[in-house]
Design a protein that fits this description.
single chain, mainly alpha, 4 helices
């Protein structure tokens, strides 16, 4: 969000949004927050074979539709314990 006193801030925001930079930064921040919240001392239950396949199908769907940042965030959560 820009301060109204700085009109160039709006232009910078729109430019970064159009170039996809803001989307990349948002996805990276989400992945880092998830990683920070994922306590390694906290053991997660093993993923069943069926859930593993479902997770992979979702990841492949995201990759196929070029949602690469959403896919990277999903992968960070799925494979954080491997």
């Amino acid at each position: 969000m820009c301060i109204p006193i700085l009109p160039h801030c709006v232009v910078v925001h729109e430019t970064l949004e159009n170039r996809g930079i803001l989307g990349q930064l948002r996805a990276q921040i989400r992945a880092e927050v998830f990683s920070a919240l994922n306590d390694p001392a906290d053991s997660r239950p093993e993923v069943s074979r069926e859930n593993f396949l479902i997770n992979e199908l979702i990841r492949e769907y995201l990759d196929f539709n070029h949602y690469k940042y959403a896919s990277s965030v999903l992968a960070a959560g799925l494979y954080a314990t491997f």
